[in-house]
Amino acid sequence: MPQCTPVRRCVLLGLFCWATCCVVAAQSVQAAAFNGMSYTTDFSNNEIGDAAGLQSLLKMSQMGTNLVTMNVWWFQSSTTATTIASNTSSKYSTSDASLETAINYAHSLGMKVLLKPMVDVNNGTWRGSILPSGTTNVNAWFTSYTSFMDHYAQIAHDYNVDMFSMGCELCKMEQFTSNWNSLINNVHGIYSGPLTYAANWSPNGTGGYRQIAWWNNPYLTDIGIDAYFPLTTSTSPTLTQLQQAWTNIATTGQTNISGDEVGLQNWMAQNGYLNLANPNDPNNKKLLFTECGYTSQDGTNKSNSSQLPNTTPIDLQEQADCYRALMSVMSQYSWWDGANWWNWTSNPNDGGTSNTNYTPQNKIAQQTLSEFYLMRGDFDLDHKITNADLQAMLNALRNLSTFQNNGNTVAQGQFFSNADLNTLGDFNGDGVLNAADIQGELSLLAGGGGSSTSSVPEPASMVLLGLAALICSAAFRRHHIIKA
């Protein structure tokens, strides 16, 4: 390591003085919406909190994710059964101990946690078909379901979870409004944080987000949609076509879905969930994509609510383009609270260029998402911009190769790509991260937006710089007198 000479110390002192002046009044800058990921087992190993799972969470965090949705399951024997129970021995739901470890580790990485319990049917039938027959059996089902929710609501309370989901895609059960309101009120008595529910995307038929009459419950802060909307009818759509489809979904309505003549924004406004004239109305709801995603298959944009046949050709670029279209369009709307992409698994080596499943891991889609999720200037990767990021940036610049491999114990090359580095800190736009970008970080911290060409030190900064220069000059002379 090079010796820190008096001259080198002066330079660092000058930089420190400048930085101190620039950032002393700076406030922490938070992300406007959730940059989320749906975290699951890899459906072969139940544990999401073992060593491999924690490594996978670390990788997820390092791509800029600030909300991890922990998906856990209980099961019932058939669609008409009235008893719901845990089954971690032979099914894919994780144990409480593993879940709790994963929650604590996600929090230690600066990520928020959405806990999302779900019910599945043992024989694989979609949970949207669950419907016991008769009022007595419906009430019995809700009694069992309440125990299920209470169990995880207590974990949410005990481990300071940041949001809790009341369920997922229970389309045929959503009609029982009074049961749901009682359930929501009951859960709020255990866990007092924000609540949501993950409704199916379909605007027609039984169930789906538009059929729910209990979104106005005051404890539900976010309207949750599993947003697997079909986008186009083409297997080779352009990015522009995909973006136009998402614009339609958000505003004018998705015209290639029968009966969907109004977009999400207008639907929320018409039903009293959003006051368009006053975005700060305390009664406004946020809209969260509790799930969204695309497989790595040709034509995934056409029907992305289920895995296409295995014979469908792989198409990594279409998946990435669909990610880019959603993020580039939906991030423009203040009522949108973000996305939770389906799905990131507990296997850090999952995905890859030959994988056709939903996961973006180790695919082009992961790199695409990093462009939106990584926060400019967030060099300590805690998902907010604070003064600590300056020192982290200086540390990174000392050895960029080490920084690029930060936390990557799996031999898959550098964790951070050059594109990631540029997303983090190429403030002057020259295509490379280097010392010339330090001014941009200082400007960002001072509230100047990060432009390295627009920030001029304030008079107080000039005084400090002058003082630092005098100190450096004196130290330089002293150093040479001693040497002589």
What's the layout of helices and strands?
Layout: H1 6-23, E1 29-30, E2 34-40, H2 51-62, E3 67-76, H3 96-108, E4 112-121, H4 134-158, E5 163-168, H5 177-188, E6 195-200, E7 220-226, H6 239-252, H7 264-270, E8 286-292, H8 316-330, E9 336-345, H9 364-373, E10 384-385, H10 388-398, H11 400-404, H12 418-425, H13 438-445, H14 459-483
Parallel strand pairs: 2-3, 2-9, 3-4, 4-5, 5-6, 6-7, 7-8, 8-9
Antiparallel strand pairs: 1-10
Helix pairs in contact: 1-14, 4-5, 6-8, 8-9
Name its key features.
14 helices; alpha/beta; globular; 484 residues; disordered C terminus
What does this structure look like?
α1 packs antiparallel against α14, α4 (134-158) runs parallel beside α5 (177-188) and α8 runs parallel beside α9 (364-373). The longest helix is centred in the first third of the chain and has 25 residues, at 134-158. This protein has an eight-stranded parallel barrel, surrounded by four helices. A two-stranded antiparallel sheet has the order 1-10. The protein has 14 helices and ten strands. The protein is globular, with a radius of gyration of 25 Å. With 484 residues, it is α/β, with parallel strands linked by helices.
